[in-house]
Specification:
- The structure is a homodimer of 320-residue chains.
- Helix content of chain A is 31%, strand content 24%.
- By secondary structure, chain A is α+β, with helices and mostly antiparallel strands.
- Chains A and B meet through helix 1, strand 1, strand 2, strand 3 and helix 3 of A and helix 1, strand 1, strand 2, strand 3 and helix 3 of B.
Chain lengths: 320, 320
Amino acid sequence: MRESQAIERLRRIATAPGALGLADDAALLDGLVLTHDTIAEGVHFLSTDPAASVGWKLVAVNLSDIAAKGARPAAALLSLTLSDDELWDMSFLDGIEAACESYGLALLGGDTIALPAGAPRVFGLTAIGRAGERTPLRSGARQGDSLWVVGTLGDAAAGLAQLQSDPASTGQLVEVYQRPVPQLAAGAALAPHATAMMDVSDGLLLDASRIAQASGCGLEIDLGSLPLSASFVRERGDGADARLFAATGGDDYALLFTLPAALDPLSLSLPRRTTISRIGRVDAQGKRLSLVSNGKAVPLPERLGHEHRGNSTSPMADRI
Amino acid sequence: MRESQAIERLRRIATAPGALGLADDAALLDGLVLTHDTIAEGVHFLSTDPAASVGWKLVAVNLSDIAAKGARPAAALLSLTLSDDELWDMSFLDGIEAACESYGLALLGGDTIALPAGAPRVFGLTAIGRAGERTPLRSGARQGDSLWVVGTLGDAAAGLAQLQSDPASTGQLVEVYQRPVPQLAAGAALAPHATAMMDVSDGLLLDASRIAQASGCGLEIDLGSLPLSASFVRERGDGADARLFAATGGDDYALLFTLPAALDPLSLSLPRRTTISRIGRVDAQGKRLSLVSNGKAVPLPERLGHEHRGNSTSPMADRI
């Protein structure tokens, strides 16, 4: 079944208000923010990725959704498949533990299963956060708002490309791909003010189109203002191609949000060393998504992002 | 990694009080009861099981944990793998919907992913219930309590055996295997009074040993008093072998609980047509688990239950 069909069918089941129409990063229940991500070997991580990094990543990608709703990590349930490789499994759990400890996430339970021989590893995590005073959704962007990103773009995709050409690659970009950092403190500081917010997991342009769709507005993004890391620029430069790569790469776990134009986010108590960049604006008159560079319109690339990572046979939802 | 090793490692991570030492059916958070079960093709369901029954079962087995804690179904997150078989996937979601509607469970979100070609189907569900005035744990059984079961035992295992010898089998026992019914109303009525309660998913004897272990007591079970359905007796008789089969079969989704000896559960407002049976007692002096039949001691079988279902290569936890 195609993913769009599945989502359409699921929307007819998930009619409770807290489901947010299956069109947001997370769901809401009794002041809690709920999310679940499943990751599979060969689809969301490489067989050659260090086991501890896979455990870390499973927690981090879920907490990125919690961050995007301005919530605080509270509790998690783990779906764990066991393999015949004891060292791998133990190291995976080391990664789970490191991430839970780093972000104050209490592992409360879950399930352990064994899959039939030869099956890929599959892991799931349900993460639960406590909502802050306000929970920004994808749907609140308004005409005149400015569009911002916390974090840099393209590093993880560049790291994945390095690993795909040489599995022994190391360095900063590989590190970002394998051990993403959820922007929890920034998310909590921004949530009371952001008109819309989500995390960038599938590529900036694809995720921006989701805010535009949910908010019923258009977004104009200036390619020249995308935040690129020094490591990224050393690897791929900062020309138009590199910027389009960064805008569509995925796995960034940055925060994408809109603010009233008059609000300067530097007046908020963001963590030190937060990278924050104004990358565009809400333009209700235009198309859902438009790109400019040096003041000139740039055509949208054919692919706005990656709906799944590391494999190219089937589509995957960012979240039902 | 062996499951016991994994659980031991996970217990060192899951130290929050709400995790209940990873030794109960569910976890507790802010008045909510949380559980997650993952099911895999060839392990927890048969490739030939009707897709709608697999969806139903995924919801029902999670709600059985909610029932065992006396909670009311509130919300769920689904981890859905999509396949190339659109009719199968759609029918699976029909089963999810039917179970959610039957039990008032609001689907709030989750994740859809595609697995690499050839991988078995894997589905996960996180179910969240609202706790009642009291949440019975596995650990509260006390000397002198009586031991009870709500539901019948052995039907699902007998149905699975029929399907394994002939995949075209039909009938009441197959129906119980494929479409278990969580004992939600009985669980809610019993929870204020039960000193300990859990659901029977892996076999009566194995699950009873878990209550004995968690409560630090011994349990004596009278094989002659096990609740057997008419369909079960027609298929397998009610001799000693049949009773041991029923006591170790698994997939029952019955409730196993202890009550103060003076309390007659028929005085509680159980649903009409509830099958409730006194099957033994707490015996703090004896072994963790002992069996009697016609007043005589019976040796424990080598296997107390099935830690996983439908496959026999690897162990599976009932819940981490």
